[in-house]
Amino acid sequence: MPHNLKCLIIEDEPLAIKKISEYIRMFPSFSITGTIRDIEDPARFATDLRATDILFLDLVVSGGTIETLEEHIAEIPFLIVTSAISKRDYPSFVKERNHYALQKPISPEMFRECIAELFNMH
Questions:
Q1: Does the keyword Phosphoprotein apply (predicted)?
Q2: Residue 122 — pLDDT band, cuts 50, 70, 90?
Q3: Of 58, 115, 53, 51, which is closest to residue 91 (Cα–Cα)?
Q4: H helices, E strands: number in the chain
Q5: Predicted confidence band of residue 48 (pLDDT cuts 50, 70, 90)
Q6: What's the whole-model pTM score?
Q7: How far is it, in rounded angstroms, from Cα 16 to Cα 72?
Q8: What is the pairing mode between strands 78-83 and 54-57?
Q9: Cβ-count burial of 68 within 10 angstroms (0-12 exposed, 13-18 middle, 19+ buried)?
Q10: Domain range holding 112?
Q11: How many domains does the chain have?
Q12: Helix residue spans in the chain (DSSP H)
């Protein structure tokens, strides 16, 4: 697994933010660079997105539609969708790129399995 991977969380539910943050901390090579709770103005956090290795993305977030992030997240190496939405209802720009899915509610085991899959550690 690569070292010093920068993780950004886009999520507006406090409990989900707390849990995802706890799970990220289980991996010493990961660091949380920030949490975005409102996506109304993507330009405000575009620099953070460009510096992100792994994006944990909820598909339903305050302040706008997730489609406004399409161009901003296109270059992020790893996208992990953290949503209660069914995969078939993901926006096309998510379906069309390589991504991983963590269906809410997310357990520590689900999180570990996703990271293992992400880095082909099975």
A1: yes
A2: very low
A3: 58
A4: 5, 5
A5: very high
A6: 0.95
A7: 23
A8: parallel
A9: middle
A10: 5-118
A11: 1
A12: 14-24, 46-50, 70-73, 92-95, 108-118
> Six-digit token pair at 96?
């069309």
Look-up of token digits 């390589």: 98
CB 29 within 8 Å of CB 1: yes
Residue 32 sits in a domain of what CATH number?
3.40.50.2300
Distance between CA 64 and CA 109 in Å, rounded? 31
Sign of CA dihedral 34, 4, 28, 97: positive
Tens digits of residue pLDDT in 17-47? 999 999 999 999 999 999 999 999 999 999 9
Rounded CA separation 116/64 (Å): 32
- Residue position matching structure tokens 């849990």: 19
The C-alpha atoms of residue 95 and residue 111 are separated, in whole angstroms, by 20
CA pair distance 7, 95, nearest whole angstrom? 21
